Amino acid sequence: MADWNTTLPDTAVVGEETHVEDHNAIVAAIAEARSVVDAAEATIASLQGLLDGKAESEHTHAAADITSGTLAAARIPALDISKVTGLQAALDGKADDGDLTALDTRVAALEAAAGGA
Questions:
Q1: C-alpha–C-alpha distance, residues 99 and 109, integer Å
Q2: Which of 1, 16, 105, 91 is nearest to 46 (CA)?
Q3: Distance CA 104, CA 108 (A)
Q4: Residue 5 confidence (pLDDT)
Q5: Average pLDDT, whole number, for the chain?
Q6: What is the predicted pLDDT for the residue at 11?
Q7: Terminus-to-terminus CA distance in the chain, angstroms?
Q8: Are residues 2 and 38 in the same domain?
Q9: Which domain holds residue 113?
Q10: pLDDT for 41
Q11: Each residue of 29-58: pLDDT tens digit?
């Protein structure tokens, strides 16, 4: 709470050399202001406690931190084929365009023979 260094004067009474009503109204207003400030400080401290340990609104994560969800395609980098383990070897074992043309011709011949039988 606020460190109130100045103590408030005692309540004035009739007969003293002061304006009693004004004096007491000022003292009451100062006391009320102090109470409001103390309550505000308590609220701020409570809010700070809620914020402690939360991430900043502007922060980043390493790719290794991602454990679920879907990445946007724009976030996925273009990789050289050598960066994907086993991909080149798997593709090397596939037919090339020439093999596919020969296969298409053979399938057509088999279909024609089956239809003509």
A1: 15
A2: 1
A3: 6
A4: 67
A5: 83
A6: 77
A7: 100
A8: yes
A9: 81-117
A10: 92
A11: 888 899 999 999 999 999 998 889 888 889
Pair 31, 9: CB distance under 8 Å: no
Mean pLDDT lowest for which of 33-37, 67-71, 100-104, 111-115?
100-104
Averaged pLDDT, 97-105: 78
Which residues are CB-contacts of 42 (< 8 A; sequence separation ≥ 6)? 1
Provide the residue type at 58 as one letter. E
Residues 49, 97: one domain? no
Q: Tell me, yes or no, whether 61 lies in a domain.
A: no
- Give long-range contacts, CB 8 A cutoff, 24+ apart: 34-42: 34/2, 34/4, 37/2, 38/1, 38/2, 41/1, 41/2, 42/1
Structure tokens at 92: 């090397």
Distance, CA of 78 to CA of 76 (rounded, Å): 7
CA-CA distance, 26 to 10, in Å (whole number)? 12
